Amino acid sequence: MRVVVNGKEKELPDGATVAQAIAGEPYVLGSSVALIRPMDAQRKLTNEYMIKTPRGSFIIELNGSKFSEAWKRLYHDVVGKNLRWQTSRLHAIGAFPSQLEKSRGTSSYKRYDCFFALGGYDVNTTYFMIARVDMSDDLGLQDAVFGRVTRGRHILDLLEEGDLVEHIEPVVLRMTSQDAFSTTDLNVPVEDGMMIETFVGVKLDERSPLCCEHFLVVTSEGSLSIDEKGFSYTASEANMDTSLGQEHSEVRLPDTVTIRHKGYQAGKIFFYNEVRQLNLSHNTVGKVTNGHDLIHLVPLNGRVLVQSDPMR
């Protein structure tokens, strides 16, 4: 059978165990290993989409209308388009061609609604718009609301005309315990097609040198303890007796690693799996490059091997 261990394919005999699968891989005895069933068996799309911009990312949730089905067909065409213009009432991103059927008439929009509109009633100049206030207008497509911004709303106030939509991707439903799990038992049998992660790789951000040095010291001691788990993060409280200053901070995207540098629990390390707004009490120290699932599957009070790039 074939498995993928830390991104590398391996051929194993039927009935092979975790110990056989991870032979020769970075691993510390007693730390957790993630076992993830094949993606086809556990990938479940939600009605949410993450939109990445130079100012950060925000999430929209579709409403199930016919226009939300149009969004699923058209969102690839929105990537690479810019914020063409904005007013106190709305943001307009585009333009791009569509086959939407134009219709005249005034529509009502609530703040944070996402909808399609036409420039000059021309389907070749279709726009993706976001309402900044409750409003009514005739914008070429009647009742064309397809969703609503639900998370990262503060990013909308940071956007400037000309900012590009860098990437859009559907949000995948969080895996369940049947889809993926962690274990310290190396005698567990593996399944054909499984992905296995034995360590968490982190590419350090040189813009936060003091916090990177703290991170290197903590992770060089062996496996890292997991002391807190929230909906959007996993955290370690190892070695919080430290003094750190303000360095580089940014919106905390999935796979971002930060260290709290002041206030309560300074020195605490956070690994994020959900978008969270900018917090100047957190310095960005790097991005997870391996073990994306492992770091969030490790149970509370468990341990995990972390390897930095560069290493100490």
How would you summarize the topology of this molecule?
Elements: E1 2-5, E2 8-11, H1 18-21, E3 33-36, H2 39-42, E4 45-53, E5 56-62, H3 66-78, E6 82-86, E7 90-96, E8 107-109, E9 113-119, E10 122-131, E11 135-137, E12 145-151, E13 167-172, E14 180-183, E15 195-197, E16 200-204, H4 209-219, E17 224-225, E18 228-229, E19 233-236, E20 256-260, E21 269-272, E22 282-290, H5 294-297, E23 303-304, E24 306-309
Parallel strand pairs: 1-15, 16-24
Antiparallel strand pairs: 1-2, 3-14, 3-15, 4-5, 4-13, 5-12, 6-7, 7-10, 8-11, 9-10, 9-12, 16-22, 17-23, 18-19, 19-21, 20-21, 20-22
Beta content: 35-45%
The description of the largest β-sheet is: 8 strands, antiparallel
CATH architecture of the largest domain: Beta Barrel
Report the uncertain regions: none
| DSSP helix fraction | 10-25%
Tally of helical segments: 5
Morphology: globular
Give the CATH level 1 class of the largest domain. Answer: Mainly Beta
How many structural domains in the coordinates?
Answer: 2
Give the distance, in angstroms, between the N- and C-terminal Cα atoms. 37 Å
CATH topology of the largest domain: Cyclophilin
CATH superfamily of the largest domain: Cyclophilin-like
What report would you give on this structure?
This protein is mostly beta strands. The chain has helices spanning 18-21, 39-42, 66-78, 209-219, 294-297, and strands spanning 2-5, 8-11, 33-36, 45-53, 56-62, 82-86, 90-96, 107-109, 113-119, 122-131, 135-137, 145-151, 167-172, 180-183, 195-197, 200-204, 224-225, 228-229, 233-236, 256-260, 269-272, 282-290, 303-304, 306-309. The strands form 5 sheets. An 8-stranded antiparallel beta sheet has the order 6-7-10-9-12-5-4-13, covered by helices on one side. A 7-stranded mixed beta sheet has the order 18-19-21-20-22-16-24.
